[in-house]
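Protein: Pantoate kinase
Species: Methanobacterium subterraneum
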Amino acid sequence: MQSLVFAPSHITGFFEVINHSNPLIRGSRGAGVVLDQGVLTQVDVCEGNGEIITKTNGKNHDQKYHLEDSVTYKTLNLLKKQFPKIKWDEIKITIQHEINVPVEAGFGASAGFALGTSIGVSKLLKLPLTFNRAAAVAHNAEVELKTGMGDVMGSVVGGFPVRLEPGAPGYGDADKLLNGHEYAEKEYGGLFVISKTLGTIETASILTDPDMTLKVNSVAREMLKKLLLNPQITNFMDLSLEFSQKTGLIDPEIMEIVDVMKDETMGASMAMLGKTAFAISTTPDSNVEDVMVARIDHSGCRIL
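Structure follows.
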């Protein structure tokens, strides 16, 4: 038995951390954009002795401390705990992730690993879960590992998600900007996300810093209010840049790239949380060298 799940990557422009004892309600408010590049997960299940094999871009992983491995194993363990009557020791599960975005760079890669695992395994084993309930398991894995707090919701919603209330799909509340589709009739047939990654930032290092959380939250509340008053893509990008500057999260190297990008696009900022500059553009062109160019994914996470 085999399943294929595509989880588009999600870049967060600004976010507010909301803690809660229930991991399904814990999460973030904020806004972002979803790309047509991300994580494609193939899950195979056959008779076996409980063996689990995970691969990323064809490479086997033997140690669970890899990001993709830890999120994948955490997601599987949550499914095993929730459904103990499944004869897990009588099957073999092979999970193969194909990823074409940088890891730990603000693209929500860990959410893609978790979503592909949870939805793919749930479908093959016919677990009594709806799509959102399976996605909620992925969110649970993310927040417990502190690898993300809103990327699962963003990836599921697609387009330009606005996370109004924290939590997993089916628990939180999300909307999306309307005007992402209106560029479909333009010369290039839609909008582009142009990004440049200079390195990684460990999400947990920010999410576990109480002083930074206070600063982030106080700024983010105002950003969300302003976006809802004027829910336009250009305003989203302006607010994202304002957020990155007021919180001090953006560094000089990224700011230099953002300054170039914002003059040639609809706006540019820093991806949260990663050492990545990103911009929304009506063309795929940029004066910044070696950029990654993607389109907007309006459909969200899906079974192929």
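Remarks: The chain has eight helices and twelve strands.
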